[in-house]
Amino acid sequence: MLIYNPWLDQFLAWVKEARSSVEIAAPMAQLEVSRKVVDALAGRPSPPRLRVLARLLGDDFLNGAMQPDVFRFLGPRIRVITNLHAKFYLFDRKFAVVTTSNPTLDGMESNIEIGVQVKDPAQVAEIGRTFDRWWDAAREVDAQKLEDLVAKALATQAAQRRSEDARLSRTLKEINALGGGGH
């Protein structure tokens, strides 16, 4: 079955139907979608295990593609692989969705994305083994280190903007001087 946007409601329905596990591999995630997933899993005597693989790059935080709050919120349920680009979702190891969309509102609602539901047991098992290998190789996120890195990235971005503003100001003064303008 092909999957097109919007598919957030379908995704959350599959999360709610999961009995043993929900596993997500995607470079970017959003706090709002992460909360919806955890809410969909909550309130059961034995909630399914949630594991998330994501990417951790400073640029992703600076451009808003990844939110530090996702790591704070998911805690030990999320691990990182720096070069992760794949996007797939496993439900109870019974079926998977391999897609171009990240678990973000844009990725599951408004972007032009496509995915395919995989039901073949051999293929689902291979996707599951791949997830397990990646999970074992992934790093856990140290909350304090994350805070320090985000603060450093934001400070660097602010310094770059101040430098760019100063360069722009000098350039505008030079342009004004060429035209003989004083303003």
Reconstruct the topology from this structure:
Blueprint (H helix, E strand, L loop, with lengths): L1 E3 L3 H10 L3 E5 L5 H11 L7 E6 L3 H5 L5 H7 L3 E3 L7 E4 L3 E5 L5 H6 L3 E5 L2 H17 L1 E2 L2 H36 L5
Parallel strand pairs: 2-3, 3-4
Antiparallel strand pairs: 1-7, 2-5, 4-8, 5-6, 6-7
Describe the model.
Helix content is 50%, strand content 18%. The chain is elongated and about 75 Å long. By secondary structure, it is of the alpha+beta class. Helix 1 (8-17) packs parallel to helix 2 (31-41). The protein folds into 2 domains: 2-141, 2-Layer Sandwich (Endonuclease, Chain A); 143-183. The chain has 7 helices and 8 strands, in the order βαβαβααβββαβαβα. Strands 1-7-6-5-2-3-4-8 form an 8-stranded mixed β-sheet, with helices on one face.
State the assembly state of the protein chains.
single chain
CATH class annotation of the largest domain = Alpha Beta
The CATH superfamily of the largest domain is identified as Endonuclease Chain A
State the distance separating the first and last CA atoms. Answer: 63 Å
| Alpha carbon gyration radius | 21 Å
Which of globular, elongated, flat, extended, rod-shaped describes the shape?
elongated
The run of helices and strands is EHEHEHHEEEHEHEH
Number of domains: 2
- Biggest sheet statistics: 8 strands, mixed
Fill in the CATH topology of the largest domain: Endonuclease, Chain A
Name the average pLDDT. Answer: 89
